[in-house]
Amino acid sequence: MTQKYDWEAAISTRGAAMAWSPWAGRDLPPPPVPPIQLTGGIPDPGSLPTDELIACNERVLRREGTFALMYGGPQGYSGLREWLAKDINRREALDTGPKNFVLTCGSAGGLENICEAFLDPGDVALIERPSFPGSVRTIMSCLPELVGVPVDDDGIDVDALERAIERVRAEGKRAKLLYTISNFHNPAAATLSLERRKRIVEVCRAHDILIIQDDAYGRIGFDETAPPSLYALAGGSGALLLGTFSKTLATGLRIGWVMGEEPVVSAITRMRFDMGVSPWTSRVIAEFCESGGFDAHVERVIEIYRRKRDAMLAALDERCPKFVRWSVPKGGFFLWLELSEGIDPQRLAETANEEAVQFVGGKPFFDDGSGGHFARLCYSNVAEADIPEAVMRFGRALERAVA
Predict the structure, then answer these.
(1) Are residues 274 and 393 in the same domain?
(2) Best exposed site among 90, 178, 181, 358 by fewest CB in 10 Å?
(3) Which helix (H) or strand (E) holds 382?
(4) Residue 15 domain-assigned (yes or no)
(5) Is residue 315 in a domain?
(6) DSSP H or E run through 367
(7) Do 342 and 250 sit in the same domain of this protein?
């Protein structure tokens, strides 16, 4: 008899760390009617600029098809990096150039490249609590020790950050990097205040900690311009900015970037083994951006998401104030709810399934297994007309989940 290969035993330590999933344990019976989903943080399907991208694609292929269809190098198409530099220079009064950028497979790929370049097993990585579980999983893949720092309505608690750094130092360890989602946080929907940004830059500089600001949602602001990036406040030294077109244009493009000082970007680029991102896709996006299409598109989708946010807030005000607390997000895709003490989180998962509304419970966003009394609602991908009904169903689920 042939002995079967033991795949589980063969999985590396890194592979085991990456096996953790935020969706584990969420298997539930199918609801009686089609559910309304308030789960995935992806763009509104009707907002996708399909016709414009088709036109850009044709122009690119007819003008420079040979180059678009060849390998493009690890740092990525220079034309798109030039546009990114001009765009952030205009918005933040910086002086960056194409050498300050490396194109990546979404912001997730950029984070992976950063961690592989700078994290060693046993280093300490500081993360927000809560944080996006996909990013936490990526950081975990390099086998650091994770130290969580709480987030409130104004972003990461800087006093708690300082205490965490001191505890790490007292244990004879080094905190190597801080990962933060400073604008329109996923999941907490918070925006880091300017005062806290300045303090974070000072604290991390004093302790030689690399700041990684994930700015996936930074362009989707509703009421005001987001405060300056941590990169800008740090003068470019000791801070990196992660960006992506996945939330503003379309997730299927899979084009993101890392912005930083040239030596840091060079170090990240040297760690790549994937031949870079698609020159074809990068050229199509650059064509779209250079034509003015990107700015016009962002203005349009901001109005879409503002209307959806307002519709969800109005429905929550009408239906759910007895059971949950929330703050008003200034941008992004999410509302973050704190459940009242009388709500049983496990029971809520069951009753929401029975009421045919899907949300994401808080636990996956906490690396320490806490967070059961939180919930994330996403308004970006649900039809605006469905939001009142979705919240009505969620409200019924809350009523039935009272312990």
Answers:
(1) no
(2) 90
(3) none
(4) no
(5) yes
(6) none
(7) no
3 inside domain: no
Structure tokens at 179: 């990962």
Residues 285 and 300 in one domain: no
Query: pLDDT tens, 196-226?
Result: 999 999 999 999 999 999 999 999 999 877 8
Provide the token pair at 262.
Answer: 């040239």
Quick check: helix, strand or coil at residue 136? helix
**In angstroms, rounded to a whole number, what is the distance separating the alpha carbons of residues 294 and 300?**
10
Write the DSSP assignment of 334-389 as a string of letters: EEEEEEPTTB-HHHHHHHHHHTTEE-EESGGG-TTS--TTEEEEE-SSS-GGGHHH
Quote the strand ranges of 187-326, DSSP E. Answer: 210-214, 239-244, 256-259, 324-326
Q: Write the single-letter amino acid at 252.
A: G
pLDDT of the residue at 22 = 47
CA angle 249, 217, 59 (to 5 degrees): 20
The model's pTM: 0.93
- Whether 272 and 305 map to the same domain: the answer is no
Strand order in the sheet with 360-361: 324-326, 334-339, 374-378, 360-361
Q: Are strands 256-259 and 239-244 parallel, antiparallel or unpaired?
A: antiparallel
**By residue range, what is the domain housing residue 377?**
25-41+296-400
